[in-house]
TrEMBL record:
One of its GO terms (molecular function) is thiamine-phosphate kinase activity. Catalyzes the ATP-dependent phosphorylation of thiamine-monophosphate (TMP) to form thiamine-pyrophosphate (TPP), the active form of vitamin B1. Reaction mechanism of ThiL seems to utilize a direct, inline transfer of the gamma-phosphate of ATP to TMP rather than a phosphorylated enzyme intermediate. Pathway: Cofactor biosynthesis; thiamine diphosphate biosynthesis; thiamine diphosphate from thiamine phosphate: step 1/1. HAMAP family: TMP_kinase (MF_02128). Its EC number is 2.7.4.16. NCBIfam families: thiL. Substrate binds at H50, E260, Y320. Belongs to the thiamine-monophosphate kinase family. This is Thiamine-monophosphate kinase. It comes from Oceanobacillus limi. Residues 25-137 form the PurM-like N-terminal domain. Keywords: ATP-binding, Kinase, Magnesium, Metal-binding, Nucleotide-binding, Thiamine biosynthesis, Transferase.
Length: 325
């Protein structure tokens, strides 16, 4: 059983609470209050799985752990408000280390006026951080993966593959170009696209997903949830100039399957594309049009990759998967 099959196996078929709008199956859960929908997401950050002492300083651990959660809120179009932190602490981690971890979280939370409102602290064998973030949207204004339709434009923010390149540099010291610091920062301190996502509120329909496991995985999730086909153009997938110093095989691997860039990909009706561009311009967010959506039944739930030589192939869902054996 892989990670996604396991998640599907524990998903409730029905809910007892009538206020639930979205449970398991998207980037965050949503439940309705009188005038707002509350959005909740949770992620874990585990020593030896997501980081080691070699790949991240304590400050980066805290920053990166909260950033991953905020990216889930961004994918729902939510405004962040609160967070709770549960942490298992091994004896080898000092008080100074822990202070730095929480400082990383506090500094990022400050950018979005978030408040730390609770959590738990226990001892453990490996440092483990579990964060719950709570945000809100106006009633019925959360964005979901399942709303893509025929002829939508597919887009993505930022550049892809940078985080994995940064991880590679950290673990393989050597001679790199002047982009070394940029790529390492993209791995340790990603920017959640909260401000960009909040500017999408006037749009009638947007399907969003955050790129945590790689665009190959996230694009397939949108295609499957919406029962459509996403067509992506290989030449339009954005990468940074610093990524081009690596062999083409690594560029391709990292931009499609690397993950942890925490950019947003999504689809939008063609008539609303100018509003996406306006949001990107206002928030100084790099934006790329990378494909289109079709409803042809033979490709339903799939992602098709188009190359400049007219070759096409299916882009399979091979991003990071915690339970793959």
């Amino acid at each position: 059983m892989d990670e996604f099959s396991f998640i599907d196996s524990i998903k409730q078929k029905t809910y007892k609470q009538s206020s639930i709008i979205k449970g398991i199956g998207d980037d965050a859960a949503v439940f309705r209050q009188q005038t707002q929908d509350i959005v909740i997401a949770k992620d874990m950050f585990v020593e030896g799985v997501h980081f080691t002492n070699n790949t991240m300083e304590p400050y980066h651990i805290g920053y990166r752990a909260l950033a991953a959660n905020l990216s889930d809120l961004a994918a729902m179009g939510a405004n962040p408000a609160f967070y709770l932190v549960a942490i298992a602490i091994p004896k080898k981690w000092s008080t100074v280390d822990l202070d730095s971890i929480y400082q990383g979280m506090k500094d990022l939370a400050k950018d979005y006026q978030m408040d730390l409102i609770g959590g738990d602290t226990v001892s453990g064998e490996e440092l483990t951080i579990s964060i719950t973030v709570i945000g809100y949207v106006d009633k019925a204004k959360a964005w979901y993966r399942e709303t893509s339709e025929d002829n939508d434009i597919v887009f993505v923010t930022g550049t892809l593959g940078d985080s994995q390149a940064g991880f590679h540099i950290i673990n393989n010291p050597g001679q790199y170009d002047q982009g070394e610091d940029f790529l390492i920062k993209r791995h340790r301190m990603p920017t959640p696209r909260i401000h960009f996502a909040r500017e999408l509120e006037p749009i009638s329909r947007v399907s969003l997903n955050d790129i945590s496991d790689g665009i190959a995985s996230e694009a397939n999730e949108i295609a499957e949830a919406s029962n459509v086909c996403l067509h992506l153009y290989d030449s339009d997938i954005p990468i940074s100039e610093h990524l081009r110093q690596f062999p083409l095989s690594l560029q391709t691997k990292w931009k499609y399957y690397g993950g942890e860039d925490f950019e947003l990909m999504g689809t939008v009706p063609e008539k609303d594309w100018h509003l996406i561009e306006k949001a990107a311009e206002k928030t100084k967010t790099k934006l790329s049009k990378i494909g289109f959506v079709s409803s042809e039944s033979k490709f339903q739930g799939q992602v098709i990759l188009h190359y400049n030589n007219d070759k096409i192939e299916r882009l399979v869902k091979n991003g990071y998967n915690h339970l793959r054996r």
